[in-house]
Design brief:
Number of strands: 19
Oligomer: single chain
Strand content: 15-25%
Distance between the termini: 30 Å
Largest sheet: 8 strands, mixed
Structural class: alpha/beta
Length: 442
Amino acid sequence: MPLVQKLERADLTLSFVGPDDADRVTRDLKPGEVRLRARSDSHDEAAALAPASPDEAREVGAALARLARELRAGAVQVAATPHAAALAGAALSGAWQDTRYRAPTDRPELTLAADGLDSAEADRVTGLHAGVTFARALTSAPANVLNPATLAREARRLETLGLDVDVWDGADITARGMGLLAAVAAGSTHGPRLIRVTIPARGEVTQVLALVGKGITFDTGGYSMKPPAGMYGMKNDMGGAAAVLGAMRALADLRAHIPEGTEVRAYVAAAENMVGPDAMRPGDIYRAANGLHVEITNTDAEGRLVLADTLTVACQEGATELVDLATLTGVKISALGNDIAALFSSDPALTDRLKAASLAAGELVWELPLHQPYLKAFQKGTLADLRNSDMQPAGGSIKAALFLQQFVTRPWAHLDIAGNAAREENATGWGVGTLVEYVLAR
């Protein structure tokens, strides 16, 4: 759904009503609801309560996109609202569908115009939508299409927008001492990739923000194999990687708004977690990039392994602040569900910035503690410095975050987005908005 300043004609118009304006059709309208008000040969008319907040505007935008799809409306005009940007962004997102694997249809592409949305706001909405769409397309792609090598090729597309992209393959990763990333990928015929995307700073570099994403393009669980029901959908286990790459896609359009002196880097650890002759086994011990040794007790706790090496590299390369995103632990879904991401942070100021960014983006986070005594469960009963799991689900998200903390030397935050990256097999692009707001406000 392209966003335009003006439409020559509209197939569907949306107006806002107040309690005193209600008629027979719009009586009992609820906040966020969009109701068809009138139909004619020339166009259709819909109504909604004027949104009182950005969150209500997002609900209206999503409902408007559903109605437009049902009516096969090709052009949609929205009346003015103080929350036009939030509404337009949600409508654009709601209109997106991955049609790459379906037969072509004659359904029209939707075009949206929102009264009162100035050009600067429109540019920001459009840029963010481009990033969310990029992330959703990556997450939605099946694993026979998207593997570590093809994910790296998709990242290289960002070079056409002026971003710097570097990719390291298996031999390079081994040479850099990234034994954990190499171990996770060892069971797959597709070798690992370490992807770095950079937006150089304007002027002298004063800070380097690292956005780190887990890029497991398919996760069988390895020899600690998932059951069939748990394995389906594991193409989405690279939702964190998609989010950081989507954020870079959006920031490419919005780079003029990145604070001067700020360099932004995205790091993606890409691998498949498969079973094979060279796959890691429970009981194996590997050396991480920071010199720690890790014993594998559960090959299905692989995300923390690839992130550990990548966080180490980001710190070694000069990151002053790091935020990682990962579909990391299933118990996070048990704790917070699919709407809310778990936030862990080593730095209170960074925590506050991410909370503010998520609020501005309409993405919900909830802070959980880095309760240090839980780390002991990973330090006992092993020949190595750490084991990657204690096989106990209680406190599992906290223990996974504590594991990651052993590999960072700078202010750092971890967002566990298990359950957020996809809903009923529909990729969401969750995290793109939060990361973009975080960078632009930095």
